[in-house]
Specification:
It is a single chain. The chain is of the alpha+beta class. It has two domains: about 5-195, GAF domain (Beta-Lactamase); about 195-400, 2-Layer Sandwich (Alpha-Beta Plaits). Helices cover about 40% and strands about 30% of the residues. The strands form three sheets. Strands 9, 10, 11, 12, 13, 14, 15 and 16 form an eight-stranded mixed β-sheet that branches. The longest helix has 25 residues, at about 170-195. Mean pLDDT is about 90; it is low at about 1-10.
């Protein structure tokens, strides 16, 4: 079968069967959505389709990202854009062909080279200005009934021939299966990252899910706590308390992650994190420096964020203990409800030191094991008997908090 373009040039139907077969086989040569789009576009070019750009839009399950747009343009690498939740309700997106296809599950085509083509979307007006002559947006129907979208555009003078449109629409079903599989993997990895931490999430996703499956590692341990949280909970409305808690964690988590740490657990207003030491402990000094740098940033951020807040006027608004030691890192819990975390005497010691920081009115304290790695920053503040430990422990405070 053949068809005629507007320019009266006969167009041979493109043979996209090899591309369909590749998709049906799971596009195994492409490990992620970005790679799938790049290889798909190049394969379609090889079939003779005059593509100038191909896009894929998928929803995600992420606390900050509503969706991801993958865009391939001829001669360029794939561009990946993460859209926040606000973008889904923004005027430009609500009145876009992509949103229309997602909402209706019906394909949209605009022959932009035709003067009579309706320019009812801002996106298509922009594409015409950029030289695009034909545009197709097709629904990708997922097995759960939800819809995603793929778009195809050309700058060929006559646009797409009808047989080319048919070939592209024929790809939609197998492409949807591949993108759905990639999206599910991305969602699972993202949720594990969000809820159990980046490294722990990777290990769980890789199959380390048996109860008791643990590894002994050396790490700088971070244990922090908001001061007088229970008292504040009685003084402020619940929504204000939650806002305070989220702001407080926003002062810590980015600093921890930026310096190579991993947040393992939120315990009410408390936080447990680790900065893992590499095999052989060659980088132990570097790890301790990174943990303290994160602590410095956190301290500054907390005091700046809560400066002048009526409920944060009772001395230091938070306390933090830093310790260096061995921990058991892995799965702990019941047979059907596990937690990927770290446990051991070193963690218990960090918890006791954090409580001591509050008693001493200090923001940051450290154990001897941690402080001796950074002698220029710490000074001894005494030996203390800590609950659960028989012998007194030397405790150190920051020089700039000495009185």
């Amino acid at each position: 079968m053949s068809c005629r373009r507007q320019s009266s040039v006969l167009v041979t139907p493109p043979d996209v069967r090899p591309v369909v077969d590749w998709l049906i086989d799971g596009a195994r040569s492409a490990p992620d959505t970005e790679s799938v789009l790049a290889e798909l576009s190049e394969r379609l070019l090889g079939c003779g389709l005059p593509l100038s750009r191909v896009g894929i839009f998928v929803h995600t399950l992420h606390p900050q990202v509503m969706g991801i747009r993958f865009l391939w343009e001829r001669g360029k690498s794939v561009d990946v854009n993460y859209a926040p939740f606000e973008a889904f309700e923004a005027e430009d997106f609500r009145n876009s062909p992509v949103r229309r296809v997602i909402d209706t599950g019906v394909a949209i085509r605009r022959r932009l080279a035709d003067e009579s083509c309706p320019l009812d979307f801002a996106m298509t007006r922009d594409l015409r200005t950029q030289g695009v002559t034909d545009y197709l947006a097709v629904p990708l129907h997922f097995a759960d009934g939800s819809v995603r979208c793929a778009t195809f555009a050309t700058e060929a003078s006559a646009g797409f021939a009808d047989v080319e449109i048919a070939a592209l629409e024929h790809l939609a079903a197998p492409l949807a299966r591949v993108i759905e599989n990639q999206t599910l993997r991305y969602t699972a990895a993202t949720l594990l990252d969000v809820y159990v931490g980046r490294n722990a999430g990777r290990r769980v996703f890789a199959g380390e899910i048996r109860r008791g499956q643990t590894t002994t590692i050396e790490a700088a341990i971070w244990m922090s706590d908001m001061r007088h949280f229970t008292r504040r909970a009685e003084r402020v409305p619940p929504h204000t308390l939650i806002d305070h808690l989220n702001r407080y964690y926003d002062c810590q988590v980015p600093a921890i992650l930026d310096h190579g740490g991993e947040v393992l657990k939120f315990i009410g207003d408390g936080l447990l994190a680790i900065f893992a030491v590499g095999a052989g402990a060659e980088n132990v000094e570097e790890v301790c420096h990174a943990a303290l740098a994160a602590a410095d940033e956190t301290r500054a951020a907390v005091f700046e964020s809560f400066a002048g807040a009526a409920s944060f006027t009772e001395g230091a608004p938070f306390g933090l203990a830093l310790h260096l030691g061995q921990v058991l890192y892995g799965n702990v819990g019941s047979s059907n409800r596990l937690d990927f975390t770290c446990i051991g005497p070193a963690v218990n010691l960090a918890a006791r030191l954090e409580k001591l920081a509050g008693e001493l009115g200090r923001t940051i304290v450290a154990s001897d094991e941690f402080a001796r790695r950074l002698p220029a920053r710490f000074v001894p503040i005494g030996e203390f008997v800590l609950q659960g430990f028989e012998t007194p422990r030397a405790v150190y405070g920051l020089r700039d908090e000495s009185r």
